[in-house]
Amino acid sequence: MAFSQSVVRSQAPAKCGICETDRPIKWKCIDCSKLLCNHCKEKVHPQFQNAKDHQVVNIKDVGRPPTVVEININKQYNTELHAIGFMSYCKDDSLWISSGAGKILQRVKPDGTKLTILSSYNMMTYGISVTQSNNLLISTGETSLKQISSNTGTLTDSVYNMSPLHPIAVHITSDNKVLVACVQGIGNIHVVDEVSDHGRQRVVVLGQGGDIINIYTGDTEINKDIPFIPADIATTPRDNVILDDVMTDTLHILNNAGLLMTYYKTSDINIMFPLSLAFSPTGQLYIGCSKSAGRTTKNAKIYEVTISGC
Fold it and tell me: Which residues are listed as membrane-spanning (predicted)?
């Protein structure tokens, strides 16, 4: 009688391509073709040559189909500003828009294909954000945030005083917490972190405890000849992140760990110089733009678009 014997074959667990230990594998560097443990991803791989330009992805994302983003323009609005440097959406479907250094702050409401100006203020702004009570918080470069009442339109000092620091950015979280970025002086202000080589900037992703999760410095192809200069940042309904790269007319779409999912060239649909972003509660994206270089006319545009896939 013949007997068959089953042979049990076990597969050795994958090891880190750097330390070759049995630490759990969580990452893969697409450029190095190496699997990485969390220790080597954080401590060792960043020391590799040109590591800042490498694409490191979660192994759960390896093999997934590429993200396809579609954008369709619903409406286009002309303004009387030279640039839409900051933009924030209100509960009553109006928008706060600011030219930043142009010292014009307006509350406008879309009316068909036109914008109706509800109120206007002459002030420098470094950042704006609408509270859950529909009031506007404004960073003006002073030590206190200003506030505009949605009911009366009155401009007052808010309760947020950062003295001796100067707030330069303000954000309201979904659970109504006020986040403020400050500097010691207002002589040299940047919206995002800037590094030394040719004006290239970066986006730093921080965890709840303040630890650095990831640093994104742009795409190696998009920003090969033109530095990465993100002007604004917005979170999508799917908890991904959109950065508008104003000098390349590109939206970079990152996951919530700060890794590039895909990008979209707004110039493909004739949206040029995207400068500010704001989502409505229904998921419509508003893109505020700057005028082209060399033009003196004040007709910066705002686009209402539908974005899908991210």
Answer: none
Q: What is the pTM of this model?
A: 0.77
pLDDT digits (tens, 9 = 90+) for 152-162: 999 999 999 99
Please list the residue range(s) of the chain that carry CATH number 3.30.160.
11-63
Greater model confidence, 126 or 23: 126
- The CATH code that applies to domain 67-306 is 2.120.10.30
Q: Nearest 5 degrees, angle CA 87-CA 90-CA 94?
A: 80
pLDDT tens-digit series, residues 249-302: 999 999 888 888 999 999 999 999 999 999 999 999 999 999 866 666 788 999
Return the CATH number of 11-63, one of 3.90.320, 2.120.10, 1.10.890, 3.30.160: 3.30.160
First and final C-alpha spacing in the chain: 63
- C-beta of residue 266 within 8 angstroms of C-beta of residue 286: no
Whole-angstrom Cα distance, residue 110 to residue 93?
8
Q: Is 54 exposed, middle or buried (0-12, 13-18, 19+ CB in 10 A)?
A: middle
The secondary structure of residue 43, as a DSSP letter, is I
